């Protein structure tokens, strides 16, 4: 059935010859994996069709070259024309095709595309190497068609898996994890026992779900979108609504990560309690709140954390207790409403009927969250202002000026709450309260983002149904869409929210993360050059592009494949190559070639082990059931069950299962097909193993010695780029701090602030009825750019963690790779990003206005410039240290000293010394920003210490301590900024400790 070759018997009748490649059907089924989702199968089939067409065109061109050479030299002997044609096919068509497929694999970066690329490679190599002509090409494509058809039929008929259902399940699991983390974070913040919740997700799974919010959900959505023709849940505007919902969930994950790093005061209080400096029991007698023992136990293994030196620990506890009394109940209610909202979204995502969706009551839940957020914003703002004013409030300083953001009802509710402690703190504000400032603001941002998510989910529920015919018509002829009334959906403001490299937002005249930027002193613009100089620059740009990692990987993959296939196009070596089926080595070479040396080594080991194991099992099976057409398929079915279980359920060992089955199919089925040629399965298995080992060894050699792309080096260079991008993000934050953001509301909008949203009802429109040009969104363009920059940096962290995983597979003769060092560096970088996110949530609030900025920020601009410059210099020093791997300076930028001078200057301002909270206390935001920079500087000091320990210090004898001792003994020797390293701790320690 699968053969295209025929023979004529002596009587003149034509008979088909049995196909010797029918085992490829099983190979294709294995590569496509019927257990994938329907959306993934549709995508893989589309990729297969496109790449099969490309392979057919390349094969036909190669056949044309060979036939043209036969036309030039019709003799049967091997001459120069055949030699030239063979090398042209080998280098240009075969090598060029492998290079193009290798580059496309990196560009598309999709497992479905990799499956289709493997099939296209198999087709090209079998047809070109064996020079089978059009007949063999048709036979291979018939086999491919049957294999793909079988896979699709099984996928869509035998327990089909819906990618849309999987997406909704992943969203439900992620939201459940958000609910668990939110409850634990707020309970930790209030030092209370977490609320007992039925069917609560375990803590370890919650942390994993939180980490998956940035990547796995996007992959599930990409698969679900391909089901829009067969699944009504993914049609019409719902495609964009799900995009917006997943983007919102990613921002919720960012807020949770920022809240993790905003519990510094609680950590200090717990450590002080363990050290005996304070006694919670004495405070509990004067407070209705109880400090949960479980929280203290969960945080028992934390490293020591200190508060500001001028803040007394006992007074800090009293201040925190007062904050609990004033805003703890409202925070509990807000967390409860947010939990209800997350549960409602989970119920909608898992709803099987319209009644289940209506039971969730998304509009009512949204109104409840808005009301709870309004109450929490009011109480937290009042609490912070009163605690900030301190005991002097009772002397009338608090009420010197009118609070424009407060209502008369709030004025009546204001009563002086006594603070147990000293009254000698009148020279400055109660600054310890700012340690919890960012948690409260990030909690508000979380609730506001949750309101947007609820609105998006409500639009998903109310969106009109689209028929399969209309959806198919929109795909085939998108220009013929019926005219519909424009609707201003909430999601439209996030349609262009794509990850932005922070360095891309800088002025083009300055070098970014890339060197050789035009328009600088060293590289003039093209307009100022002569024609010859412009031509030289074009050639230089072409060479620069060819030297980039993706093209280097593609070029060496293509040329390496051409070199490995060269024996097939030589008259002397071709018989040996064909006898050993050298195309197997080529297929294995292409599948093993990876961008990094570590990943190639790992794939080489996995494929070699899988090949040996599969070959041994195939030989044993064929010896037990020789040429048995019944027992062999049954044995193959039973043997494939554990292999497919590993492929589907154990993604980290997926390749092992695939190559065990590939070798088993090739050896056992090929032996059965060649049973008339007296080929033993042991011989086939040995040839298969020899080819696999040859392809794997050649791939490892090419990867290691030809333009090596080591994961160790790329991890180090990537960390340098990441630190530089953090400096761009921080500089953008400083710009916002000094100049503000664009307004987010129109002039006719009467709302006071983003912290006090209007209370919507079920009939309240999600957006005001206005023309598209006049619609104002609740997030400004600057905020969206900040979010996009943070998403880009989160993606960079994921890539760096992947490189760290590959680095351990690279051999290192001078000693084991320092995985722990780089793991700590990545954790510290993640903590810096979380803290910058918290500060962004404060710096982009609507309360920042120009009048407050002129009265509060401009007078201390000199100190602000010194601190910002020191921090940017610190980022630059760390970036250079990672990239150069040279000894570090013994004296790193004095960022902490600059910050302390800024804080001292702020304390000298009249508005701070008198603790005025006029105009809503908006100037407190500036003070909180300056104090919170200590968290970022501590991490920078820690990273600097790590690099000094790793790469050494520029001194003649000892390290940093010896350098500092050189300058001890002079006047003011106690004021120098000495380097101080602190223990690193994971930002997710709350969750890990509780899970353990």
Automatic annotation (TrEMBL):
Pfam families: FUSC_2 (PF13515). InterPro entries: IVT-Associated, Memb_transporter_dom. The chain crosses the membrane at residues 47-69, 84-104, 116-135, 141-161, 602-624, 630-648, 655-672, 684-707. It comes from Cutaneotrichosporon spelunceum. Residues 400-412 have a biased composition (Acidic residues). It is a multi-pass membrane protein. Residues 579-702 form the Integral membrane bound transporter domain. The keyword Transcription does not apply. Keywords: Membrane, Transmembrane, Transmembrane helix. GO terms for cellular component: membrane. It is found in: Membrane. This is Integral membrane bound transporter domain-containing protein. The lineage of its organism: Eukaryota, Fungi, Dikarya, Basidiomycota, Agaricomycotina. Residues 397-425 are annotated as: Disordered.
């Amino acid at each position: 059935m699968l053969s295209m070759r025929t023979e004529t018997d002596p009587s003149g009748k034509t008979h088909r010859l049995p196909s010797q490649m029918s085992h490829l059907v099983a190979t294709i089924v294995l590569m496509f994996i019927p257990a994938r989702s329907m959306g993934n199968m549709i995508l893989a089939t589309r990729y297969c069709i496109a790449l099969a067409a490309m392979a057919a065109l390349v094969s036909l061109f190669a056949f044309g070259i060979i036939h043209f050479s036969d036309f030039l030299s019709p003799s049967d002997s091997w001459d120069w024309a055949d030699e030239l044609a063979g090398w042209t096919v080998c280098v240009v068509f075969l090598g060029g095709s492998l290079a193009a497929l290798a580059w496309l694999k990196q560009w598309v970066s999709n497992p479905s595309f990799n499956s289709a690329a493997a099939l296209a490679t198999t087709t090209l190599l079998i047809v070109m190497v064996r020079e089978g002509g059009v007949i063999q090409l048709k036979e291979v494509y018939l086999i491919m068609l049957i294999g793909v058809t079988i896979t699709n039929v099984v996928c869509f008929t035998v327990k089909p898996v819906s990618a849309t259902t999987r997406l909704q399940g992943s969203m439900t699991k992620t939201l459940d994890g958000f609910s668990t983390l939110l409850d634990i974070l707020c309970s930790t913040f209030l030092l209370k026992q977490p609320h007992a919740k039925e069917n609560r997700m375990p803590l370890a799974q919650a942390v994993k779900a939180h980490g998956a919010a940035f990547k796995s959900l996007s992959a599930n959505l990409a698969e679900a979108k391909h089901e829009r023709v067969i699944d009504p849940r993914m049609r019409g505007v719902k495609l964009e609504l799900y995009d917006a919902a997943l983007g919102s969930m990613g921002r919720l994950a960012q807020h949770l990560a920022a809240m993790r790093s905003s519990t510094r005061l609680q950590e200090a209080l717990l450590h002080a309690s363990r050290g005996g400096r304070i006694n919670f029991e004495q405070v509990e007698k004067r407070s209705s709140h109880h400090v949960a023992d479980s929280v203290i136990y969960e945080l028992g293994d934390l490293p020591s954390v200190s508060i500001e030196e001028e803040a007394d620990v006992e007074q800090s506890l009293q201040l925190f207790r007062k904050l609990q009394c004033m805003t703890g109940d409202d925070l509990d209610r807000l967390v409860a409403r947010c939990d209800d909202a997350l549960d409602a979204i989970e119920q909608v995502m898992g709803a099987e009927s319209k009644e289940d969706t209506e039971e969730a009551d998304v509009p009512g839940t949204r109104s409840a969250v808005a009301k709870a957020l309004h109450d929490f914003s009011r109480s937290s703002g009042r609490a912070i202002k009163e605690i900030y004013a301190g005991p002097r409030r009772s002397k009338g300083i608090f009420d010197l000026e009118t609070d424009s953001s407060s209502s008369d009802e709030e004025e009546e509710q204001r009563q002086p709450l006594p603070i147990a402690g000293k009254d000698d703190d009148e020279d400055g504000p109660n600054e310890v309260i700012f340690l919890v400032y960012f948690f409260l603001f990030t909690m508000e941002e979380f609730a506001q983002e949750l309101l947007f998510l609820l609105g998006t989910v409500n639009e998903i529920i109310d969106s009109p149904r689209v028929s399969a015919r209309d959806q198919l018509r929109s795909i085939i002829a998108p220009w013929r869409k019926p005219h519909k009334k424009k609707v201003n959906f909430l999601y439209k403001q996030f349609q262009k929210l794509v990850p932005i490299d922070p360095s891309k937002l800088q002025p083009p005249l300055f070098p970014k993360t890339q060197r050789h930027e035009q328009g600088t002193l060293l590289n003039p613009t093209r307009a100022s050059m002569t024609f010859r100089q412009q031509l030289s620059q074009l050639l230089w740009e072409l060479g620069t592009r060819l030297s980039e990692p993706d093209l280097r990987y593609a070029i060496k993959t293509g040329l390496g494949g051409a070199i490995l296939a060269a024996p097939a196009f030589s008259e002397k070596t071709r018989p040996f190559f064909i006898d050993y089926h050298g195309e197997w080595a080529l297929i294995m070479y292409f599948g093993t070639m990876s961008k990094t040396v570590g990943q190639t080594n790992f794939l080489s080991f996995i494929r070699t082990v899988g090949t040996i194991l599969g070959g041994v099992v195939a030989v044993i099976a064929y010896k037990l059931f020789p040429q048995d057409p019944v027992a062999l398929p049954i044995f193959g079915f039973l043997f494939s069950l554990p292999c497919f279980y590993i492929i589907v359920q154990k993604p980290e060992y997926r390749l092992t299962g695939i190559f065990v089955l590939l070798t088993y199919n090739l050896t056992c089925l090929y032996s059965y097909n060649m049973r008339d040629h007296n080929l033993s399965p042991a011989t086939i298995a040995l040839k298969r193993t020899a080819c696999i080992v040859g392809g794997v060894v050649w791939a490892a050699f090419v990867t290691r010695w030809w333009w090596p792309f080591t994961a160790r080096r790329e991890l180090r260079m990537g960390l340098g780029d990441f630190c530089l991008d953090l400096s761009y993000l921080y500089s953008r934050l400083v710009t916002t701090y000094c100049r503000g953001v664009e307004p987010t509301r129109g002039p006719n909008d009467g709302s006071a602030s983003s912290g006090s949203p209007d209370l919507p009802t079920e009939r309240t429109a999600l957006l005001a009825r206005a023309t598209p040009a006049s619609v104002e969104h609740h997030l400004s363009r600057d905020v969206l750019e900040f979010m996009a920059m943070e998403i880009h940096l989160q993606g960079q962290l994921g890539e760096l963690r992947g490189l760290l995983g590959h680095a351990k597979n690279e051999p290192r003769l001078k000693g084991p790779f320092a995985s722990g060092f780089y793991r700590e560096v990545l954790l510290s970088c993640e903590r810096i990003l979380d803290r910058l996110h918290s500060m962004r949530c404060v710096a982009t609030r609507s309360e920042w206005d120009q009048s407050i900025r002129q009265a509060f920020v401009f007078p201390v601009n000199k100190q602000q410039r010194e601190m910002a410059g020191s921090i940017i210099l610190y980022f630059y020093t760390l970036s250079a240290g990672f990239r150069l791997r040279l000894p570090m300076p013994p004296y790193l930028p004095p960022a902490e000293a600059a910050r302390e001078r800024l804080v001292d200057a702020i304390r000298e301002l009249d508005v701070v010394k008198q603790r005025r909270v006029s105009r809503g206390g908006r100037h407190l935001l500036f003070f909180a920003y300056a104090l919170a920079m200590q968290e970022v500087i501590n991490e920078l000091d820690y990273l600097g210490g790590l690099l000094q320990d790793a790469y050494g210090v520029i001194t003649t004898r000892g390290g940093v301590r010896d350098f500092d001792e050189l300058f001890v003994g002079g006047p003011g020797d106690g004021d120098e900024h000495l380097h101080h390293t602190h223990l690193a701790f994971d930002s997710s320690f709350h969750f890990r400790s509780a899970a353990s």
